[in-house]
């Protein structure tokens, strides 16, 4: 936790509720020989460096100084149109540039939602455990939270959904749990949210990382099918990104929604950065038009399947007697839960750092910090032998932790 002040004026109230776990493991990961299983990072050796270099040259030749200029707050117009066409093809709906706001990664889109929609004390109904980045993005708005239930038999009450500023859902390979939400549960949630009159935020960064069977329609596609022809005007706000399909360094994300909401989000963005990078937008356009993803994604999936399966095997062998978890069918993470409630993963985290390995403890995915028996492990960043060494170090940390507790 972070707190205190400098004596020159206290920090804003919201910052005292922040966590510094991310900073801890990023700093530790720079140490020689340290193994980080914590970050949600792609395999760096797979980045399409040559394709990005060629796209950069084409972008400068095509757009000249316009790619180096300040641009519209909403983003490079040609890329907005390309994303609108991409979403139209994917959903069968009608989307135009006015439905699209380009953001500095999907993370900025979450921040803008908080700025545009949430005042202190407002309610957010969020998938639980909740993506740490989303909680960080909304923390300055000081909302309150209720857990989203996907189970139609234990559905959130209609009055709760009506009171919420928005419902936050990650149906495809949720961060942190890797859960893939079944189609009937998606349809049931959409129906309830439409009836409530709230916004429904579909955060979908892992869509391309389908390691097993196809995932089926997302919330936006389901809503388009219900509404039929005409430009989209429904409640779903879709967050997408190129960080997982090409490279995170491009910082290309997008928000897709009905045009009035996009205008409000653009006003919020204007207060944050005035203009995104027109150059990276122009480069991204070249990459999409050259269909770089079509060639790149199969290599990503092949690599990640191997690494997921390798991590599953070593987790079962080294940690299986203390933790349980499912093999994810996509995404980037394993989610483990302690078989005995006495294992506090906040305390285990600090023990693991001393063993030279990092994971993310479950408490940071809980708005109230009370979930302390789980952990998130990334399987995409490291080669199998490095992951195996990291898990063995984690097993040593567990044994040391348990010996201290008894």
How does this model look, in words?
The chain has 406 residues and is α/β, with parallel strands linked by helices. The protein has helices spanning 21-29, 49-63, 77-91, 105-117, 132-138, 158-163, 183-196, 219-227, 259-270, 278-289, 292-319, 345-354, 384-405; strands at 35-36, 100-104, 123-127, 144-148, 164-169, 199-203, 236-241, 252-256, 323-324, 333-338, 357-358, 360-361, 374-378. The protein contains 13 helices and 13 strands. The strands form three sheets. Strands 2-8-7-6-5-3-4 form a seven-stranded mixed beta sheet, with helices on both faces. Helix 4 (105-117) runs parallel beside helix 5 (132-138), helix 4 packs across helix 9 and helix 11 runs parallel beside helix 13.
Average pLDDT number? 94
Radius of gyration: 21 Å
Work out the strand percent: 5-15%
The strand order across the widest sheet is 2-8-7-6-5-3-4
Q: What would you give as the CATH superfamily of the largest domain?
A: Type I PLP-dependent aspartate aminotransferase-like (Major domain)
**Overall SS class:** alpha/beta
User: Can you summarize the main beta sheet?
Assistant: 7 strands, mixed
Tally of individual helices: 13
- Terminal-residue CA separation: 27 Å
**Uncertain residue segments:** none
Order of helices and strands: HEHHEHEHEHEHEHEEHHHEEHEEEH
Shape: globular
The quaternary organization reads as single chain
Query: How much helicity do the residues have?
Result: 40-55%
Count the beta strands.
13
Q: CATH class of the largest domain, anyone?
A: Alpha Beta
CATH topology of the largest domain: Aspartate Aminotransferase, domain 2
What is the correct CATH architecture of the largest domain? 3-Layer(aba) Sandwich
Q: How many structural domains are formed by the residues?
A: 2
